[in-house]
Amino acid sequence: MNGTGTAAEDRVFAALANATRREVLRLLRERGPQPVQALADHFDMRRPSLSEHLKVLREAGLVSERRSGRQRIYRLEAAPLADVQDWLHPYERFWRERLKGLGDLLDRMPDDEQP
Question: Are the C-beta atoms of 77 and 62 separated by less than 8 Å?
Fold first, then answer.
């Protein structure tokens, strides 16, 4: 990812910004492909509302859909998350260095003696 981001990257980040959509991804990651009704059973919302969330996830490339008879089966597509991980990596390194510096400082400080 460069500093400007692409439309596809923006869709992934926008999809991840919503807690319901993150929960759908978690369910698909932990339980594998599921029909929309099985996913809907986990949420206190009408099925058309969940369908809108699934549409956003589909457009971001984070889930795929296939028909099996009258059911639509959703599956996690984790590849777009690699771009998110690539974007986050410099921040992880930043915080690791800061925490290491804090640890070094604490190691140099004298221990308080208990009376």
Answer: yes
pLDDT of 1: 44
Which of these, 49, 27, 53, lies nearest to 39 by C-alpha position?
Answer: 27
User: Of 57, 60, 55, whose CA–CA distance to 11 is shortest?
Assistant: 60
Average pLDDT, the chain: 88
pTM confidence score: 0.74
Query: For residues 18 and 23, what is the distance between their CA atoms, to the nearest angstrom?
Result: 9
CA–CA separation, 102 vs 61, rounded Å? 39
Do residues 36 and 74 touch, judged by C-beta distance below 8 A? yes
- Among 7-21, 22-36, 54-68, 78-92, the minimum mean pLDDT is found in 78-92
DSSP secondary structure code for residue 55 in this structure? H
Q: Where are the beta strands (DSSP E) in the chain?
A: 34-35, 63-68, 71-76
